[in-house]
Amino acid sequence: MTLPPQSVDNFLRQLQLGFEKCHRRDSEAEVTLRCLPEDTPVFKYESTSQMETTARSVDNGSGGYCVFHDVVDGLILLNTKQKCIRKREYFPISRLLVAKLPSEPHEVATEWLHDELVVKISSIGMRFHAYLVSIGSTNIEHKEPDYAARPRNLPLGRTHKWPTLVVETGKSQSHSDLDRVARRWIQKSAGDIKIVLTIKIWSLWNHKGDNTPNYHYRETRAE
């Protein structure tokens, strides 16, 4: 039986006050948790099936998040796909896993961006797949971006570990939270990631009552 969740805001306070003695202090995980909405639920991890069932139970289609602690097999989980979870980020030090739930606006935004890249590159006489590799939401250093791409032929000295472009989308996160996520990507890659494009999604009600998603794009570049 899954224990009732607590909010990420309350969980953070407990971590900082030392109430959770079983968790090692993990500043990177704490920064990520602060970027999540305060009411994001936090659950104790029990099994893969429990994670999927729990994520499905809190998924309302809006693309929110849920957090699991005491995830001992997080690195194994990252090598498997779960339909009810769009992407995951795992923190080995604190054994925390942040799961992002699927949402149609997120999918539409990343697909639109990929199509735009293909069109722009074609307009200058180049073919996307001849010069760039789309690596989607592949696991990169325990974290899955919403979208990523890199040159097919990398410059001398560059490895395949990091993409050149990363895209992060968010609906419940603020612009400043998304900016922090972008800076973390660049810092972790030591500048190998050159551009992080963040997409803020929100909805506006028009006079017909249609709740249509809208997007605002921001760019963060490596210095």
From TrEMBL:
The lineage of its organism: Eukaryota, Fungi, Dikarya, Ascomycota, Pezizomycotina. It comes from Trichophyton equinum (strain ATCC MYA-4606 / CBS 127.97) (Horse ringworm fungus). This is Uncharacterized protein.
